Amino acid sequence: MSERLFAILTDSFWKILLPGLTVTIPLTAIAFSLAMVIAVAAALVQFANVRGLRQLARFYIWVFRGTPLLVQLFVVFYGLPNMGVLIDPFPAAVLVFSLNEGAYCAETVRSALESVPAGQLEAACCVGLSWPQAMGRIVLPQAMRTAFPPLSNSLIAMVKDTSLAANITVAEMFMATQRIVARTYEPLALYIEVGLIYLLFSTALTWLQRWGEKKLGAYERQEA
């Protein structure tokens, strides 16, 4: 490795990492938190078979799972201004990522809800709990433990998907890398470097996922 390339990589590391910590991670955290709210709501109306809302949830899931994330970003950021709706890049990215991820997570949560034995909900209602109480205290906690691994995988995937936000001018770490590449003309080394930073973030989340699974496993053994 030449001294020039080494100097470029050393200097660019912090210039890439900083947007990762201040933009990529907050974007992921906010969008995924909103996605979980959407996912639980969409899963519950399907599980409860609420007429009208169930069809609306299915339509939402169908649309956002069936269209590319990049197209959704372009529709919101570049398309909505034609209708007089102007959204800044970061809020637009949060909106699209939360809606897109919520559609996928809704199916995960719905499957987890259906995996809980129906007798538990019936037993809870028999002892005097209302349907919302039974869901909140009995069924949903068990379902979320089942859904934890796939939801964690979705979170890790979202960290990498945030690189698409560069297409709507969100100054996250992939856009920072593109700007450095345009100035230094070292695309191979710099794109490998940003890839390694994404790998670092994903690895940290993988460790957290394993820790969470161990904690949930220990909790389930205590209950048993």
Write up this protein:
- The protein is an all-alpha fold and 224 residues long.
- It has one domain (3-223): MetI-like fold (Orthogonal Bundle).
- Helix content is 83%, strand content 0%.
- The chain is built from eight helices and no strands.
- It has helices at 3-47, 53-66, 69-79, 89-115, 118-126, 131-161, 173-184, 187-223.
- α4 (89-115) packs across α6 (131-161) and α5 runs antiparallel to α6.
- The longest helix has 45 residues, at 3-47.
- The protein starts with a helix and ends with a helix.
- The model has no long low-confidence stretch (mean pLDDT 92).
Keywords:
single chain; 224 residues; mainly alpha; MetI-like fold
Topology, please?
Blueprint: H1 3-47, H2 53-66, H3 69-79, H4 89-115, H5 118-126, H6 131-161, H7 173-184, H8 187-223
The tally of domains stands at 1
Question: Which CATH top level class fits?
Answer: Mainly Alpha
Shape: flat
Second-tier CATH architecture: Orthogonal Bundle
Q: What's the total count of β strands?
A: 0
Regions with little confidence, pLDDT below 50 for 5+ residues: none
Strand content: under 5%
Q: From the alpha carbons, calculate the radius of gyration and give it in angstroms.
A: 21 Å
CATH topology: MetI-like fold
What structural class should be given to the helix and strand makeup?
mainly alpha
Termini separation (Å)?
Answer: 57 Å
Summarize the amount of helix as a percent range: over 70%
Total helical elements: 8
Could you report the average pLDDT, rounded to the nearest whole number? 92
* Biggest sheet record: none
**Topology pattern, helix = H, strand = E:** HHHHHHHH
The CATH homologous superfamily is named: MetI-like
